[in-house]
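> call design_seq(struct)
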């Protein structure tokens, strides 16, 4: 089994144990109406929720921010000395609104303007202080409060709206303390220089791997990103209570859409069948052409077939069905089955 396959099965198993699965049962009955099983090869397309729109819409004609319009300040130094969280906040000091988007290039210098560390381009993105690292338009409003009010709060949501927040993690080694941070803005916005009086990590514990990491700009004063708007599914697995080694198990999965939106099945998701944990796993694509969509508040019943190798250990197992689709929760369900 490939590493991706194992990871996907473990993701499904973990999700199943993390939520209460309503309506999963074990039965040998079969409905006369169902979507027939077809051994369709995997499409290998993991569908994600659409990226959330910007918390504040950018009016047409608004220009990207220039460094001359902005001022910035270090919010503080947080965390262990070998894993410093040193976020900064930027404010629009001009009388013209503008916006920021993306990841700036950064350079840290000491008091003699000697470069201590720098990062640019696609290197060093993802501080892990924030799991959401996708870029978003950040409206830089005019007339926002002064930056002194932002000192001491490492959470962007707690700051006044209309600012830009930037997580920075410095784990590099340096003999000298930092003095300034040079922020090279995206979209050719120029260089913004702010005070950055940060003591470098302890030389005995610092890391030489990715010493300077940052995230994209994020908005302040709002919970960002918003909570994922997953479609809630409910599963019923109708399966014989036992199956023999070397046989093909036929079972049925009823998927009920509990959300207020239709589950369009486009792009068509893959699914996994498995005996967990550590048993055989197969992947196919769902027979979406025959199903069309699972409407809000409605359900669809799918025929499934799963070959159980003759080498499968006898005894109790959990039969798993899991959809490989990032738009839904939970991803699937399990029922007990005994292999004889």
């Amino acid at each position: 089994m490939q590493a991706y396959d194992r990871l996907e099965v473990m993701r499904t198993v973990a999700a199943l144990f993390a939520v209460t699965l309503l309506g999963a049962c074990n039965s040998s009955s079969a409905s006369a109406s169902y979507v027939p099983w077809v051994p369709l090869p995997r499409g290998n397309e993991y569908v994600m929720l659409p990226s959330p729109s910007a918390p504040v819409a950018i009016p047409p004609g608004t220009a990207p921010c220039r460094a001359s319009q902005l001022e910035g300040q270090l919010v503080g130094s947080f965390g262990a000395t070998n894993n410093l969280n040193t976020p900064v906040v930027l404010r629009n000091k001009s009388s013209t609104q503008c916006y920021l988007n993306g990841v700036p290039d950064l350079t840290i210098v000491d008091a003699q303007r000697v470069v201590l560390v720098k990062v640019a381009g696609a290197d060093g993105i993802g501080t892990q202080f924030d799991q959401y690292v996708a870029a978003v338009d950040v409206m830089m409003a005019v007339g926002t409060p002064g930056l002194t009010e932002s000192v001491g709060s490492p959470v962007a949501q707690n700051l006044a709206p209309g600012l830009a927040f930037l997580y920075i993690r410095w784990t590099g080694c340096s003999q000298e303390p930092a003095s300034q941070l040079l922020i090279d803005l995206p979209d050719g916005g120029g260089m913004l220089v702010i005070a950055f009086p940060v003591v470098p990590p302890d030389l005995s514990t610092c890391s030489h791997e990715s010493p300077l990491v940052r995230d994209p700009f994020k908005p302040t004063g709002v919970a960002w990103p918003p909570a994922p708007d997953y479609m809630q599914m409910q599963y019923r697995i109708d399966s014989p209570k036992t199956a023999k080694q070397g046989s093909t198990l036929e079972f049925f999965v009823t998927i009920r859409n509990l959300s207020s939106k239709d589950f369009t099945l486009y792009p068509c998701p893959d699914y996994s069948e498995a005996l967990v944990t550590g048993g055989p796993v197969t992947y196919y694509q769902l027979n979406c052409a025959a199903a069309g969509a699972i409407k809000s508040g409605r359900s669809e019943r799918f025929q499934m077939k799963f070959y159980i190798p003759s080498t499968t250990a006898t005894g109790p197992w959990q039969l798993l069905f899991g959809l490989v689709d990032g738009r839904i929760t939970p991803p699937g369900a399990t029922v007990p089955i005994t292999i004889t």
